Amino acid sequence: MPRIRFALPHIIAYYVDRDYIDISLSRIMPLAALCLFGLLTGVIFNHGLQHPYDKALHLGFYGLLTLSIHAFFCCRLRISAVAAVALGFAGEGVQMFIPGREASLMDGVANGIGVVIVVAAIALWRMETRKIDADTQVDETADFGELQPIRLSSSPSSRGVSDR
Fold first, then answer.
1. Over the Cα atoms of the chain, what is R_g?
2. Residue 108 to residues 49, 59, 61, 90, 105, Cα–Cα distance (Å)
3. Burial class (CB in 10 A: 0-12, 13-18, 19+), 33
4. Which among 68, 73, 103, 151 counts the fewest CB atoms within 10 Å?
5. What transmembrane ranges does the database entry give (predicted)?
6. Digits of tens for pLDDT over the chain (164 positions)?
7. Is the pTM of this model over 0.70?
């Protein structure tokens, strides 16, 4: 079993090795960025500052949420998107019952647009990497690709030479 490069407490390292939980930087960074983004926006709103970019914050947060779900749980992109959109609309629905909060359909739409932007970016990235991989495979086989067999025959017509 592969070992984790950074030091983990023994009890966590045991389960990581036993169940092969991949705790790599590419899986943890989107989650860390999401937590930092949420912490910073929470500090802005908890201090009573009115932020004019409320919808942009929704776009960013739910885009990072989609990326975090996709990277950390290593699930299909459409599952990540559906989970993030469901969490966005559920969060807006819960706000109807919290005093001092207001549910907004436009916030839910902004959440969905943030998810769509990240899904589109990941899909474009994958499409470009597949194209690059396909192009490199074609270039590698171009040198030795489809060789035509040589015919060993004595008749001139079989070699493409006409009698005229």
1. 27
2. 22, 10, 12, 9, 5
3. middle
4. 151
5. 28-49, 61-89, 109-127
6. 455 445 667 777 776 666 566 677 878 888 889 889 888 887 776 655 566 778 888 899 999 999 999 988 877 889 999 999 999 999 989 988 988 888 888 989 999 999 999 999 999 998 988 888 887 776 555 555 555 566 665 555 555 555 55
7. no
Interatomic CA distance for residues 89 and 94, integer angstroms: 9
Residue 117 carries which side chain, given as an amino acid letter? I
Place of tokens 């969490």: 87
Tokens of 91: 């969060």
Angle in degrees, CA 61, 41, 72, rounded to 5: 40
Neighbours of 148 (CB within 10 A): 5
CA distance 62 to 87: 9
